[in-house]
Design a protein that fits this description.
Largest sheet: 9 strands, mixed
Strand content: 15-25%
Number of strands: 16
Structural class: alpha/beta
């Protein structure tokens, strides 16, 4: 059995495979890891391209498009390895990209998952949106990263080259112990795509595991390879799934407080979409809230399980204030400008309810 399995989920991505798979094959030692392409029911010629050009890459064909979450659940169930690497099809890896993350996981059994440093494939001097140098959220559930707050990307000047504990690791390049992934439920298939890795990572933190960014490994990510940022479907999934992950993982009392504030913040976001000339995105926010309300009942048992398995009294990686306020009102556009650095501001949000 290989130490790691690098799993690339593909859906009609022949062009992305042609462009980015060569770097993965070139920089992934065969003695350390195997490369698996899990095909999510593609209708293009992805499979034929792989068979003809990359016979050493294992092709795992799924019968339909299960989305990011369930697609990876099925792929991880089908492979054998100590560690699995969830790698987007639009990521270019670099020489030695496996080394530091695998060494970190080998050294600490309580470390469940890690991510490398993600830089933009379009401009390699800047961080990439979906993960940058490690993920955090604010107290109202808005995700951000070391190196990226909302749409503002920082230039990589080595300011985040120190490994650090994080709340969530990006699904664009996620190293995780296969046994822990399976035992703790994997990705939530109802999410389909977007923020499912935040939900999984929050769950792991609550259950006593650690997650880290290991910036000694660097990869380059295009981002938006499946759904472009302005697409209403992406807006819908992000807003719906963000509410779901808060509902699943917050204590009941904490959820009630946050839900009231999020009600107004979401409608402010919808109004902003309208003002900026994106009525379909505004409609997607309303649609997302309705979809969330319909799904709530299905999570009663899952919320109870999360409460029962939670062992952490508090969680790191959660900004004690509002990143919306910090960004839009206080004009704080860099991670280092937030209050994380001050000892008195190192507050922690309660984990899943007891």
């Amino acid at each position: 059995m290989k130490k790691a399995a690098v799993i690339i989920l593909n859906w009609n991505g022949r062009q992305l495979l042609e462009r980015f798979l060569p770097s993965v094959v070139r920089h992934t030692p065969a003695g350390t890891a195997k490369i698996v392409v899990a095909d999510n029911g593609s209708t293009d010629d992805s499979a034929a391209f792989l068979r003809e050009n990359y016979p050493s890459v294992q092709l795992l064909r799924l019968d339909r498009n299960y989305g990011f979450a369930e697609g990876y659940n099925r792929a991880i169930e089908a492979v054998e390895a100590e560690y699995v690497v969830l790698l987007n099809s639009d990521v270019e890896v670099t020489k030695g990209w496996l080394d530091a993350p695998l060494e970190a996981l080998d050294a600490d059994p309580k470390l469940a998952a890690v991510q490398p440093k993600l830089l933009s494939e379009h401009d390699c001097s800047y961080f990439e949106y979906a993960g940058a140098a490690g993920g955090f959220i604010d107290r109202y559930g808005y995700p951000f990263c070391r190196g990226r707050i909302f749409s503002t990307l920082e230039k990589d000047e080595g300011q985040y080259d120190t490994p650090c504990d994080i709340l969530w690791a990006t699904g664009a390049c996620l190293f995780i112990r296969r046994e822990i992934y399976r035992n703790e439920g994997g990705l939530d298939a109802r999410f389909f795509a977007h923020q499912e890795e935040i939900d999984l990572c929050w769950r792991l933190c609550c259950r006593g595991y650690r997650l880290r960014c290991i910036p000694q490994s660097t990869v380059y990510h295009v981002g938006g390879g499946t759904l472009q940022a302005e697409k209403p479907q992406k807006t819908f999934l992000n807003f719906r799934n963000n509410l779901l992950l808060l509902y699943k993982n917050l204590p009941p009392a904490g959820w009630r407080r946050i839900a009231f504030i999020r009600f107004w913040l979401d409608y402010v976001a919808a109004f902003r979409f309208l003002v900026e000339g994106h009525p379909a995105n505004a409609a997607a926010v309303f649609k997302a809230r309705r979809a969330f309300c319909k799904l709530k009942k299905a999570y009663a048992g899952i919320r109870e399980e999360n409460r029962r398995k939670s062992v952490a009294a508090s969680l790191p990686g959660i900004y004690p204030g509002s990143v919306v306020k910090a960004y839009y009102i206080e004009k704080k556009r860099k991670f280092t400008e937030l209050a994380f650095g001050k000892k008195e501001d190192r507050k922690r949000l309660p984990s899943t309810a007891k």
